[in-house]
Design a protein that fits this description.
Elements lengths: L1 H18 L1 H8 L5 H17 L1 H15 L1 H21 L3 H4 L1 H32 L5 H29 L2 H6 L4 H8 L1 H9 L5 H4 L11 H32 L4 H28 L2 H25 L3 H16 L2 H10 L6 H31 L4 H24 E2 L2 E2 L5
Antiparallel strand pairs: 1-2
Helix pairs in contact: 1-5, 1-7, 1-8, 1-11, 2-3, 3-7, 3-18, 4-5, 4-7, 4-18, 5-7, 5-10, 5-11, 7-8, 7-18, 8-14, 8-17, 13-14, 13-16, 13-18, 13-19, 14-15, 14-16, 15-16, 15-19
């Protein structure tokens, strides 16, 4: 539980940037066109993904050599420092281009940390999980991220309802970042209480891998691609509803609460289903459902731009994406031996997210502007979900016995 709560707090630091991207764009970039400031803010959000592979290599290797807990303690310290700077630094109006450069540096630090956070966390959860509960334990990581989205969404909704647009732009957007900084001691305390999983498995054999190593790595990276695009399309919905559909800021921000709640519930449900029944079916049906429903849901939303339509669209997309998280994370953990498990998972996740996650919101915003079509995000989601489905089809045949996960050798 300590690992999940601390990870949720770190993810909150990361996701809150997305929800306040419009305000951040106007604060840290030259004044001008509203859409261009948003695009630049999203581009800086994407820059953070460039440093993820470096964090994956450095921090993942550190976790495999020194332990999962020390690596996770290091990430929480670094990411909190970057969040504090973002919350307190002057804007473009005060210090000019230096504000933009400092913001970019903070995003690079956050990306570095998250690149090395995921692998040790998944390795830790899989290693401490009881038999036949690895899917549920690993799903807890994604469910915790859902809780972080709920927290960020509630703060954003209350702030946009309580404060005037001018107050939000002047200082209101800083409040969620300051709260994250204030909660940092709790994250550090929780992680210091965690037992070290690597001590129990060090020197005890290896995990057999199905299929060529290169093929497994490529397939898992493409599987992450599908999930991360769906995740960041959902995260973009508050901005999409406000900027593209012209919905009120309070209604737009409130959808993040729906996304977070549904993500939490369906991630845990999917983890339980993967443990109890058939992991292969959970993974494939999730990605296929995401592809099939993406375009119709966005078409319906664009034709009926109302809060209920927005909430239902967000719920459907978040549910189809979240339900496979536990099964996929469990699969990643079992695919690699303990001596390099954290490094391998970190690199695969960081590469998949760096190549497509960081660019998703920028890409869909740009495509929507170029095509003048509100359906641009749905087509992007449709294509990437099919790619992930194709990647998962063969790898699951090799990695399961009768549909259920093989043993995780310790």
């Amino acid at each position: 539980m300590s690992a999940l709560l601390a990870n949720a707090m770190e993810f909150y630091d990361f996701v809150v940037y997305v929800f306040f991207a419009a305000y951040i764009g106007r604060a840290f970039f030259p004044p001008g066109d509203r859409f261009m400031s948003l695009i630049m803010a999203l581009a800086v959000f994407g820059v953070g993904f460039v440093s993820r592979p470096f964090g994956a290599v450095v921090l993942g290797r550190y976790a495999d050599r020194r332990g999962r807990r020390p690596a996770m303690l290091l990430t929480v310290g670094l990411i909190t420092s970057a969040t504090c700077v973002m919350a307190l630094m002057p804007t473009y109006r005060d210090i000019g281009i230096l504000a933009t450069l400092v913001l970019t540096a903070c995003r690079l630090v956050q990306g570095f940390c998250f690149g090395g956070e995921f692998g040790p966390s998944i390795a830790y959860l899989a290693e401490v999980a009881p038999a036949r509960r690895r899917g549920l334990y690993c799903a807890g990581l994604f469910a915790g991220q859902g809780v972080a989205v709920v927290a960020a969404g509630i703060l954003g909704t209350v702030a946009t309802w309580w404060l005037t647009p001018e107050q939000m732009q002047d200082w209101g957007w800083r409040v969620p970042f300051l709260l994250a900084a204030a909660a940092a001691p709790v994250s550090i305390f929780l992680r210091r209480q965690m037992p070290e999983s690597l001590l129990a498995i060090r020197g005890q054999g290896t995990t057999p891998e199905a299929g060529p190593k290169a093929g497994r790595v490529i397939a898992l990276t493409l599987a992450i691609l599908g999930g991360t695009v769906a995740n960041y399309v959902c995260s973009y919905l508050p901005t999409y509803a406000n900027v593209t559909l012209g919905m009120h800021e309070v209604a737009s921000m409130s959808v993040s609460i729906v996304i977070g709640v549904v993500t939490c519930v369906f991630a845990l449900l999917g983890g339980w289903l993967a443990d109890a029944y058939d992991r292969r079916r959970v993974l494939l049906s999730s990605r296929l459902a995401c592809a099939v429903l993406a375009v119709p849901m966005f078409a319906w939303l664009s034709a009926n731009p109302s809060p209920p339509a927005l909430w239902l669209t967000a719920a459907v997309l978040a549910a189809t994406n979240a339900i496979n998280a536990g099964a996929l994370f469990d699969l990643m953990a079992e695919s690699f031996a303990p001596r390099y498990r954290a490094t391998a998972i970190s690199i695969i996740y960081a590469m998949g997210v760096a190549l497509f996650g960081g660019s998703t919101q920028f890409a869909v915003a740009w495509l929507g502007q170029v095509t003048a079509s509100p359906l641009a995000p749905s087509w992007y989601l449709f294509v990437t979900s099919l790619v992930a489905f194709g990647a998962l089809w063969p790898i699951q045949k090799a990695a399961t016995e009768g549909g259920r996960p093989t043993a995780l050798v310790r």
